[in-house]
Amino acid sequence: MENVALAMMLCCQKLIPESHWQPYIKVLPECFDTPLFFTVEQLQCLRPSPLFEESLLLYRNVSRQFIHFLLEIIRSDEFRHRKKKSKDKISELEPIYVNSPLTAANFTFNLYRWSVACISTRINMIPSEVWKDDIGQPRMIPGLIPFLDMANHSYTESAFHEAVHFSDEFDCAEVIAVRDYKPLEPVNIFYGWRSNRDFLLHNGFIPLEKNIRDIYKLKIGLPKSKREDARMRLFHALGFVAESTIFAFEISVCEPYFHDSLFRFAQIYILDEVPSAAEQVEEAASSSDNIKGAWNFLHDRLPKSKREDARMRLFHALGFVAESTIFAFEISVCEPYFHDSLFRFAQIYILDEVPSAAEQVEEAASSSDNIKGAWNFLHDRFALLLRAYGRVIDPVRVTYPKPSGFSISSDTIRKSMIERLKLSEIEILQKAKDFCSKQLLEAA
Q1: What is the pTM of this model?
Q2: Integer CA distances (angstroms), 28 to 23, 101, 115, in order
Q3: Residue 427's CB: how many other CB atoms inside 10 A?
Q4: For the domain 2-120, what is the CATH superfamily, name and number?
Q5: Where do the structural domains in the chain lie, given as residue ranges?
Q6: How much is the average pLDDT of 287-315?
Q7: Record keywords: Methyltransferase included (predicted)?
Q8: Best CA proximity match to 53, nearest among 415, 326, 427
Q9: How far apart are CA 166 and CA 148, in angstroms?
């Protein structure tokens, strides 16, 4: 909510002509290339990237915030009107925005969206002069730092965390150079490690440099036939929220492409029946068929026949929310490509029946058939996701027509970034799929 408060403050300062911050505000962009400013057509172009859903959720959240603040501002307008007409002092408490420049007429969605984008693309953390943490140290709060926030992003190969540092000695923000600079050379800063998806969503660009920390967020929904208590307990044991039926895993662009938990998830997921005994679960999940099935599972969508109570309990044991039918996993661009919980999920998923005894579940999940099935499950799912992308043209290899005297349109720029995002996600999914193929060969 601190970011939201800063966004509202920026709205106020923009509406005050004599504001001390007007020179800074006037040089801020009027439009951004974050999905908040995308047209409907441009948003549709994001499919099938996970960013499509995340962009809609962000737009919904910003819209809800705007409506909330607009209603409060209308209350302030009404209070001012009553106060102006009344000869007596009004006893009710003043609304929060009564002394602000905000009115129902000037507080528009475009203004609030612009302010949110300014904060999202330029935010830095600075120590508060008022708020302290539990040990008496200043709390870090979001802020805008004029001039400094004009610096563009550049990667660093070193273990680097903060490009912007606040100096207590000089009471100012300092930029830490990630390399040596020559005179007249543009100075860049390191924004931090994040996925290309997050860069586009929050910063409005896709880095041109190779992002070795790029990840793909893989979501796997759990059908009702896979929600048996035994299966959910196994998923819960993997660390997933008990009530979840949507499981998320990270797929990396570099090896290892995902954590072992992803394959373990697949092993549990594909079990037809989850044994009640832990030994039986492990035996079933470790079978060659289960391992192949688990890899195949990660490649395919989840059918609705996998939601029995025993299976759901195993997913619950992995840490997933019990009621969820969609499970999200993050896939990384580097090894390990995904967490172990994803494979464990696949092991449970591919079980035909989930045994009631924990030992039987472990025996079934650990069988060679189950292990092969889990790898097959993951492999097929990645292949299915790849097919959804279709043919994506590398925008770097495309020459866009540039009319004389005009710059490239924002639509061209945004669609180019969308294509680059999709290419980075395709690379992650392809590496994860190839990794599953390798595991299947080793399990054969």
Answers
A1: 0.74
A2: 9, 20, 10
A3: 17
A4: set domain protein methyltransferase, domain 1 (3.90.1410.10)
A5: 2-120, 215-388
A6: 68
A7: yes
A8: 326
A9: 12
Angle 64-67-69 from CA coordinates, rounded to 5°: 110
Sole residue written with tokens 């008022």: 130
Residue 71 or 137, more confident: 71
Residue 71 pLDDT exceeds 50: yes
* Confidence category of residue 172, pLDDT binned at 50, 70, 90: confident
- The answer to whether 373 and 286 are in contact (CB under 8 A) is no
The whole-number average pLDDT for the span 402-425 is 80
Residues contacting 170, CB < 8 A, separation 6+: none
Mean pLDDT of 35-50: 92
